[in-house]
Amino acid sequence: MPVEIGQEAPDFTLYNTEQKEISLKDLISKSNVVILFFPLAFTSVCTKELCSTRDDINQYEELNATIIAISIDSLFTLAKYREEQQLPFDLLSDFNKDISRKYDSLYELFPKFGLKGVTKRSAFVIDKQGIIKYKEILADPTKIPDFDKIKETLENCDK
């Protein structure tokens, strides 16, 4: 069943790069949440996307938003990637692909290299009540989410 704007976001708990459990329920108790699903660590478009988010982290904090990024990479791969890119937000491993499926963010067959079960690049804004306020699922892995629309959505979340 597809996730839609206005619906309650599917809850989840995944491990971050410090091997700690992070749950959506806990995050929304403190702030709005931006979830960025990304295909694979160490790839050029993913690096551009996440480093852009890193560079704008103060804007997200001012908008009362916590950023998390999710991929199917192992938490060990994500730890190295987070360290090398100096990312100030959690990277979560959806190695078993359960959460990517719940959010309609999984390629059964990735457009390149014949890989199966790779995370689709997508973005969601979840407000503090757990409601999906923004959804963008990109079929083309070379595109990045519309960060201006994400920020605009966040501006309206606490009104």
From TrEMBL:
Residue ranges constituting the Thioredoxin domain according to the UniProt record: 3-159
The UniProt GO MF terms for this protein read:
antioxidant activity; oxidoreductase activity
Q: Which Pfam families match?
A: AhpC-TSA
Q: Where are the transmembrane segments?
A: none
Q: Which residues are catalytic?
A: C46
Q: Which UniProt keywords apply?
A: Oxidoreductase, Redox-active center
Name of this protein: Thioredoxin domain-containing protein
Per the UniProt record, the lineage of the source organism begins with: Eukaryota, Metazoa, Spiralia, Gnathifera, Rotifera
